[in-house]
Write a structure and sequence with these properties.
The complex is a heterodimer. Chain A is α+β, with helices and mostly antiparallel strands. Chain A contains 24 helices and 33 strands. Chain A folds into six domains: 1-197, no CATH class; 237-428; 436-550, no CATH class; 566-664 and 919-927, no CATH class; 676-784, no CATH class; 788-893, no CATH class. In chain A, a hairpin with a 5-residue loop joins strand 8 and strand 9. Classes of the chains: A alpha+beta, B alpha+beta. Chain B: GO terms for molecular function: heme binding.
């Protein structure tokens, strides 16, 4: 095939980016080797120092290369170079600038780069702060970087028919990824447009959640590197101190990152909650649990020398679980079990290698060094703090194991299916219930352990001395927690006994840790971080219980259906709100007030009135749930909830459904086409009766109904509350009164029709009470429009009061009239308008009037023609001379026409479309959850800062 | 360290026991079909395809939490499904449907639904169409 020379492609970023990718890859390899040699020869200062400097230089270059790649992609994205596959997949012309970051990390390649970006930053920090640990730690970091860069390398190796693809490059051009006829055109670039960002990611949380989460993800590598360094160098105790600080940092940031994801889900998604035990959520929680377990054993190891092996294992497997999570979410193996896994990218083998290498590598290192890791002779005693901290860590491990096992079912299926192709995959029947059932016990144990462990002392040798104080405080806490739990039960309903136990456990954790803080905060400032974290944990338990187990559906189903269980009835959480018709639910009265469309975003306004027991309104507020249409208005891309926050509860509202014709333009057209319009032509003031037959499906009969329609007013300008004028609009409007049957109720509606740039815009009226739709038929314009160039105008320059003749008509220019009130001119603000009042008399003595208008709008003069149909006269006021007060008129004589008969189209079977299906939920005490989680993470970060300052 | 090891082992054993118990108790199961669902009468997960030429009824103004349609399970049995939710978007486009629910007489009462929709860009041609103005 002939080689095509493409024009207008922007290949600069591609060349630079591709080179930078290769540089990043090889610099990381060089860094790894150099740092390895530096560690290997650490006994020889000089030699080691040289290698170390080479390593530093390599990593500096590696980092610069990673930044360059990211810069190239941003450059291409900001300039909308759609010839790049990554740009066309994630950017579109209408993408707001503030979402450019979200677009960058929407794709796999971008998020890999974000991950690497943080590794580089962390690496730079380590190079400055790790001192003698720099070489061994950086060796591992470089090794990790080599593997991750290879994911975006996009290099192909061919061995005969075999092609090995190493990574997927973000710098690929669209024409390199797919084959299409369009690429036969040399100038195809001009034809491209972008696919744009997934609407659910067009949210401010998506700008801050991924970088935070990835910083958390990335930072888990540091404790991992330290653990590897400790095993490698055999200095099993020295690494514990720097590793602790880093794991505190990592746990804090990763926790905040996960929490932001929960906040995004709660604020922007429609499932009504913050946690759904989705595999992607689970696989980010598991490393956090392991890391937290690890930092507890790390504290134990530092204080007592016990549990170094456990600390190694926890830190190693935290990172391995991060890699496993990457494998699950990016290999496509989760498939249909997760709503937000990435799709396959052909990297499965590479990801598996990533996992295998670090998983097996970690295990091998442990086995190799197992015996050399020091273990104190003496066991920890039952009454020592370290013992119970161990148990706590094990509980966290158990939680991680259970979550991982359930989340790995797709992996299990895959393996079984590989071995036995007829094997049917298994799934969790109800994942949420499944996880909640186990994790509640984790919560209970951790809550209680966190209290007890704090009351015990490190390396307790003589518990009898302290047993009195321990018992006193513990019993106090139990009593306090019982009382608090009882008080809480007055507020919320905790449900089954396990929940009540969790409530107790939460209060126990809060009580004991407050007690502990009060007693020790002044003696040892470190207590502050751990106290805050554990109080946060207790608050979180209360928050989960209050908001989860006690969430109250306000929008309870109003429709009866036989034979449903209570559980199933609870699923029916949607109500229909009809515009302006108040709906009473529980202690609320909801009213849909209306909606606005801004771009693709449609916002509904729902009034809430909260009533007390006596039915008095105690509070009024408005919520604004909204939705985003896709770019063609053919479907709803996403619905966004709206939430009213109180200190003790949230009111959450989300749109569940809209009338079909409001969901898509296509459906709207279909509905309009399906309506059978009955057209009646009326002159203003006229009234007409007609009959309509309605088919009743069962039994097969017909019903005949009478309608009475009258045209009360007609104007040659569009008058309608929804109409917003634009220059050059031509339009008409009418006031129509309609009644059905013998009923006395007459519905009076304003309808309009506008011709704008060759397109017709209807402003119909829907009368829901009689399922009737009214509009002005398009044929109206055939009666009205007479092109200017078909008219033979004559010019007259006349003074007020003077008369002139045109054919057999005598016209008198009576006077000018400022601010004319005529039916063919719609005044707008800032208009300067004057009309010429003309009286007409024909040969037979018939009289009539015309009033052409001259306006200056936006400093531009223009004119509005008037027509006298029976006389066939058209008149224009083209100029007025203020000095002589003369008017310049253009008058034309055309064949006379009948008065306008306004065709009014009436459809009598038009169902209403002014409703929405809404879900409203009250989440009590949800702030306890947020405050608890935030305190937990803050406690971790405070601990890190305190420990950093102590050195 | 022995005590902690013992406790660790005990805990892992408990975890394994709980997990396997939960998995055995029907917490984990392969996708059922209608006849199996009718047999057990309990909540199951079921996969099938939409029967496109049978009526789909969703009348939100009458009941916004009820949508009925016909589903053909993997064995080719057709049953009416009552979904206790509104009609999901892109319902007709679904390749396969996963339901959570139980049989009640000849109807399947579904609490939850998951749609497997074909990827927006089934082939390169339609993908390119989406990217060209």
């Amino acid at each position: 095939m002939e080689e095509i020379t493409y024009i207008n492609e922007h290949l600069g970023p591609r060349h630079i980016g591709h080179f930078a990718l290769l540089l990043a890859f090889f610099a990381a390899i060089l860094g790894m080797v150099s740092y390895f040699m530096a560690t290997h020869h650490r006994a020889e200062k000089l030699r080691s120092g040289k290698w170390q400097r080479l390593g530093q230089l390599s990593f500096l270059f590696h980092g610069a290369a990673v930044f360059t790649v990211i810069g190239c992609i941003f450059y291409a994205m900001l300039n909308q170079y759609y010839e790049y596959q990554y740009v066309s997949a994630h950017v579109s012309a209408d993408l707001q600038q503030r979402y450019i970051f979200s677009a960058f990390w929407e794709g796999q390649e971008g998020s890999f780069l974000l991950w690497m970006f943080w590794h580089v930053i962390l690496g730079y920090v380590l190079m400055v702060t790790a001192r003698r640990w720099e070489s061994p730690v950086m060796t591992t970091l470089c090794a990790v970087q080599v593997v991750i860069v290879s994911m975006v390398l996009g290099v192909h190796f061919g061995f005969g028919d075999w092609v090995i693809k190493l990574g997927s490059s973000p710098m690929l051009l669209l024409r390199e990824t797919i084959n299409a006829p369009i690429f036969q055109q040399a100038d195809y670039v001009a034809l491209l447009k972008g696919n744009g960002l997934n609407p659910s990611l067009q949210n401010y949380w998506m700008t801050i959640h991924p970088p935070t989460l990835f910083l958390g993800f990335a930072s888990t590598v540091v404790p991992f590197c330290f653990a590897v360094a400790g095993l490698w160098t055999g200095e099993h105790k020295a690494w514990l101190k720097p590793a602790l600080r880093w794991s505190l940092f990592s746990a804090g940031i990763l926790g905040i990152g996960i929490l932001m994801g929960a906040a995004w889900a709660y604020e922007a998604l429609n499932f009504g909650g913050y946690w759904a035990w989705d595999p992607v959520e689970n696989t980010s929680l598991v490393p956090w649990l392991l890391l937290v377990a690890g930092l507890h054993t790390n504290l134990v190891s530092r204080a007592t020398g016990q549990g170094i092996r456990a600390t190694y294992l926890f830190y190693l497997f935290t990172f391995v679980m991060i890699v496993y999570s990457t494998f699950l979410t990016r290999s496509g193996i989760l498939g249909d079990t997760s709503v937000h896994a990435f799709t396959e990218m052909g990297l499965e083998a590479q990801l598996l290698f990533f996992l295998g290498f670090f998983g097996i590598g970690s295990a091998a290192l442990m086995v190799w060094r197992w015996r050399s890791i020091p273990v104190p002779e003496k066991e920890e005693s039952l009454s020592s703090r370290e013992f119970w901290m161990f148990i706590g860590s094990l509980v966290l491990l158990m939680s991680a194991v259970l979550i991982t096992a359930s989340t790995s079912l797709p992996v299990y299926n895959e393996i079984r299916e590989y071995l036995n192709p007829v094997f049917d995959g298994v799934t969790l029947t109800d994942p949420e219930a499944h996880h909640n059932r186990f994790q509640i016990w984790i919560g209970i144990f951790v809550g209680i352990l966190s209290g007890i462990a704090h009351f015990l002392r490190w390396r307790e040798k003589d518990f009898s001395k302290h047993s009195r104080s321990f018992l006193l405080h513990t019993l106090g806490a139990v009593a306090g927690a019982v009382v608090c739990s009882w008080l809480t039960l007055l507020w919320i309903d905790a449900g089954p006994w396990q929940f009540k136990l969790m409530l107790f456990s939460g209060w126990f954790a809060i009580w004991t840790n407050v007690d502990y803080l009060i007693r020790f905060a002044f003696k040892d400032v470190k207590v502050f971080g751990s106290g805050l974290s554990h109080i946060g944990f207790g608050l979180m338990l209360l928050g989960i219980l209050a908001s989860g187990a006690n969430k109250r559906v306000i929008s309870q189903n109003q429709f009866l259906m036989e034979g449903l269980s209570d559980d199933e009835e609870l699923e029916r959480t949607t109500v229909i709100l009809i515009k302006d018709e108040p709906m009473v639910m529980e202690n609320y009265e909801l009213t849909l007030r209306g909606d606005t469309i801004d771009g693709f975003n449609r916002t509904y306004f729902v009034d809430y009135k909260r009533k007390d027991a006596a039915g008095r309104v105690v509070e009024e507020f408005q919520l604004e749930p909204n939705l985003l249409y896709d770019k063609t208005f053919e479907k709803i891309a996403i619905t966004n909830p709206s939430t009213k926050h109180y200190w003790d509860k949230d009111i959450f509202t989300v749109i569940m459904s809209l009338p079909l014709e409001e969901q898509s333009l296509e459906e709207k057209r279909k509905k309009e086409d399906s309506l059978k319009y009955h057209v009646v032509s009326l002159t203003p003031g006229e009234m007409i009766d007609f009959k309509d037959t309605l088919k009743i499906s069962q039994p097969d009969t017909f019903m005949v109904r009478d309608y009475r329609v009258s045209l009360e007013n007609f104007a040659r300008v569009p008058v309608h509350p929804d109409y917003e004028p634009e220059p050059k609009d031509i339009g008409v409007s009418a006031t129509v009164a309609i009644s059905r049957g013998k009923a006395d109720t007459v519905y009076r509606e304003q309808i309009a029709l506008v011709l704008r740039e060759g397109l017709l815009y209807h402003y119909p009226a829907q009368i829901n009470e009689i399922s009737t739709r009214l509009k002005i038929d398009e044929d109206i314009f055939e009666q009205l429009l007479t092109p200017e160039d078909q008219l033979d105008y004559k010019e007259f320059v006349v003074k007020p009061g003077s008369s002139f003749r045109l054919g057999d008509k005598e016209l008198t220019f009576r006077n000018f009239k400022p601010q004319p009130e005529v039916d063919h001119y719609l005044p707008q603000e800032g208009d300067i308008a004057v009309s010429a009042q003309l009286d007409i008399t024909d040969a037979a003595g018939n009289t009539g009037t015309m009033e052409p208008v001259f306006i200056i709008r936006d400093k531009t003069p223009s004119r509005i023609r008037d027509e006298h149909r029976e006389f066939g006269l058209f008149s224009n006021l083209v100029n007025l001379n203020p000095e002589t007060s003369e008017a310049t008129l253009l008058i034309a004589q055309a064949p006379p026409r009948d008065a306008v008969r306004v065709p009014i189209a009436v459809a009598t079977k038009s169902s209403r479309s002014d409703w929405l299906a809404l879900q409203a939920i009250e989440f009590p005490g949800i702030n306890l959850f947020w405050i608890g989680c935030i305190s937990m993470m803050m406690g971790l970060l405070i601990s890190m800062v305190l420990r950093l300052r102590m050195r | 360290m022995k005590k902690t090891y013992i406790i660790a082992i005990v805990m892992v054993a408990i975890a394994a026991f709980i997990a396997s118990n939960a998995f055995a108790e029907g917490g984990v199961a392969p996708y059922a079909n209608f006849s199996k669902a009718a047999e057990t009468g309990e909540s199951v997960k079921l996969v099938g395809t939409l029967v496109k030429d049978k009526p789909m009824v969703f009348e939100p103004l009458k009941d916004p939490n009820k949508f009925s349609f016909f589903l053909e399970d993997q064995d080719g049995t057709e049953r009416e499904v009552i979904l206790l939710k509104g009609k999901p978007q892109d319902f007709e486009m679904s390749e396969s449907i996963v339901l959570t629910g139980r049989m009640e007489g000849s109807q399947f009462i579904a609490k939850d639904i998951q749609l497997k929709c074909p990827s927006k860009y089934k082939d390169e041609e339609s993908m390119i169409k989406g990217l060209v103005e």
